[in-house]
Write a structure and sequence with these properties.
By secondary structure, the chain is an alpha+beta fold. It has helices at residues 3-17, 39-58, 74-79, 82-85, 102-108, 119-128, 176-180, 183-190, 235-252, 298-307, 333-344, 378-392, 405-414, 425-430, 451-459; strands at residues 21-23, 35-37, 63-66, 87-92, 99-101, 147-150, 153-155, 169-171, 196-205, 220-230, 260-264, 274-282, 285-294, 313-315, 320-322, 325-332, 345-350, 353-358, 369-373, 397-399, 419-423, 432-437, 443-447. The protein is built from 15 helices and 23 strands. The strands form seven sheets. Strands 3-9-10-16-13-12-11 form a seven-stranded mixed beta sheet, with helices on both faces. A five-stranded mixed beta sheet has the order 20-19-21-22-23, sandwiched between helices. Bound molecules: adenosine-5'-triphosphate (ATP).
């Protein structure tokens, strides 16, 4: 087994064992391409979302947040082009009947293709590379012709006819449509002036054909998207600014910058002015983490045409009226989480032992502090509880009195807890505790009354 797959297996196993990610519906045999976040995964995901929201909304005067609904008028998906054109090229192995995305199969042999190509173009590439393209499951090379498969997920919400194909309602395929259709509401209610942004975090659903890479590609997932509305003349300069800001942001998340790179789209959709992806070096290769796109005025123009509403911007000072251009940044919570976990995973030799430590940036760590009384005797449990109570209102704190202190340290290392506090019998004499640092394993003695100040400095 090579190192890359080894890391992926270790992450999947740690995720399950330590409560980060569970396969969906496991007691019923599972449910493909959907995952549940366990207690620590929910904390990590919340911290990732909070970091994004702080960066994109709270720290930016000109960006406001939104929480639009998952279900929207189906007319929105017609206007956006999703009903007719949101599809992936699908083929089936004639031997084992595994379905695959043709662009992904071609990518394996370094032939570029994407979902924007026509069915004929894709089929020509598939034919030209007959024999070289292999089924990922059985290794055979006999495929059905590629067919476009629409990714929108349908539902029967509000449909009481019993026929789910009549007047389908869709679960949203991306969160940004909720932003475009609320552009006017935000403009009218918030008195924002161009350039301004609207950001939102929320679930999206896609009938992904192949979803074999853990939480990287799932059929239900969460997006963090920001749409920045600008004057058409300024679109490209803001696009460049957002490219820089977004890459800088990953530095703040503590990601090793050698594992990140830009990828320019080879094949722009007709309305796009520029499109780059930030790629991360996942255990299975360089893959898209986030898209940063200059989308022109396509989105507002489409919704204007289909709704009959004016979605322009009036610059009172310059006496100018125009349809804003949009610069978008869009990233998935699951893909961020997998990146954060892969980047944090570390194995270190300690004596004869190997310690696994998740070196999460402190603000992302699911638990910040663990309080560990050395014995289960009341004389230690009581002061330890008092310490727990004094910290837990400010930082997510764990209390663990089971097993040896060495095992407890290893457990906390494995879930990335930056600090452990040991309460021992000396505490009863000197009113101090031992604080151990996750990364250096250095221990220092701190007075109980100084703990809050100490952690304020360390954790903020
Ligand atoms: P891909 O080419 O990998 O299918 P995409 O280009 O279709 O991705 P976008 O439509 O640009 O993705 O979506 C924006 C972001 O949403 C992606 O960069 C990714 O982080 C996230 N995302 C998209 N699809 C999924 C999915 N099925 N599972 C998890 N995250 C996703």
């Amino acid at each position: 087994m090579d190192d890359k797959n080894d890391l992926m297996e270790k992450l999947v196993s740690l995720s399950k064992r330590r409560g980060f990610v569970f396969p969906s519906s496991e007691i019923y045999g599972g449910f493909s391409a959907v995952y549940d976040y366990g207690p620590l995964g929910a904390e990590l995901a919340n911290n990732i979302k909070a970091a994004w929201w702080k960066e994109m909304v709270h720290e930016r005067e000109e960006i406001v947040g939104l929480d639009s609904s998952i279900f929207m008028s189906p007319k929105i998906w017609e206007a956006s082009g999703h009903v007719s054109g949101f599809s992936d090229p699908l083929t089936e192995c004639k031997v084992c009947h595994t379905r695959s995305r043709v662009d992904h199969l071609l990518e394996e042999i370094d032939v570029f293709a994407d979902e924007k190509m026509s069915e004929d173009e894709i089929n020509k590439l598939l034919d030209d590379n007959k024999g070289k393209v292999k089924c990922p499951k059985c290794g055979n090379s006999d495929f059905t012709p590629s067919k476009s498969f629409n990714l929108l997920v349908k539902s029967n919400l509000g449909n009481f006819t019993g026929d789910t194909d009549a007047d389908p309602v869709y679960l949203r395929g991306e969160t940004c449509q909720g932003i475009y259709v609320n552009y006017k509401n935000v403009l009218d209610s918030m008195h924002v002036k161009i350039p301004f942004g609207i950001a939102q975090i929320g679930k999206a659903f896609r009938n992904e054909v192949t979803a074999r890479q853990f939480i990287f590609r799932t059929r239900e997932f969460e997006q963090m998207e920001m749409q920045y509305f600008v004057h058409p003349d300024e679109a490209i300069s803001f696009f460049k600014i957002w490219k820089e800001r977004r890459m800088d942001y990953y530095k703040k998340l503590g990601i090793n910058m050698e594992n990140l790179r830009w990828h320019e789209h080879e094949n722009l959709v007709f309305y796009a002015k520029a499109a780059f992806d930030i790629e991360y070096k996942y255990p299975f290769g360089w893959k898209e983490l986030e898209g940063v796109h200059a989308r022109g005025d396509y989105d507002l123009t489409q919704h204007c045409k289909h709704s009959g509403q004016k979605l322009e911007y009036v610059d009172q000072v310059k006496g100018e009226k125009f349809t804003p251009h949009i610069v978008e940044t869009s990233v998935g919570v699951g893909r961020t989480m997998l990146m954060v976990m892969a980047d944090a995973y570390t194995e270190e030799e300690v004596g004869d032992d190997t310690r696994v430590v998740m070196k999460f940036a402190k603000h992302l760590a699911p638990i910040k502090i663990a309080v560990l009384p050395l014995s289960k005797k009341d004389e230690l449990i009581e002061p330890a509880r008092k310490i727990f109570n004094s910290l837990s209102g400010t930082w997510h704190t764990d209390f663990d009195a089971t097993q040896s202190i060495g095992k407890r340290y290893r457990r906390q290392d494995e879930i990335g807890t930056p600090y452990c506090i040991t309460v021992d019998f000396d505490t009863l004499e000197d009113g101090a505790v031992t604080v151990r640092d996750r990364d250096t394993m250095a221990q220092e003695r701190i007075k109980i009354e100084e703990l809050i100040k100490y952690f304020e400095e360390k954790l903020g």
